[in-house]
Amino acid sequence: MSPITHFFTGWAVANAGGLNARERLAVTIAGAAPDLDGLGLIAELLTRHSARPLLWWTEYHHVFGHNLLFALVAAGGCWAATGQRWRTAALALLSVHLHLLGDLVGARGPDGDSWPIPYLWPLPGAGQWAWAGQWALNAWPNFVLTFILIAFALFVAGRRGVTPLELLWPRAHRALVDTIQRRLGRFTP
User: Fold this and answer.
1) What is the pTM of this model?
2) Residue 65 within any structural domain of the chain
């Protein structure tokens, strides 16, 4: 799945647990963080024509951040950095696992190869999880899921006045909430 879909999945999980803004941000980041192992693409592109190209994306994308060890580290980081430690850590763990599940079912690469999940990495001899039915990254289910998650985010903004922007960009957060509530009214149960 795309980083945007992972971000909004993490944000949806963060809004299920009665967390404050900082805790919601931590769970959201945890849900998107496994894709940090994709930053190796930058080094790979910069060195692709050199005598010793760095194959960091080819070798390590869907490895370092896509396993149980990373999920536990992310949950531990959320536990250490927030107030509702156990609830935040549990939701962060769920958020990372939803990321892994999303990639397992919907992240087939542009070359048609599936991207397996090395769930028990770095244990020696640990296998990889793969699904033969994995759909392409740009397949319609990913677009539908992303649309649903964005619609959910807009609904939460209208109903509770909460958006993913609240701590990162407060002015844009307030403008978005005000606009939604002014145009559509405050959503009430």
Assistant:
1) 0.89
2) yes
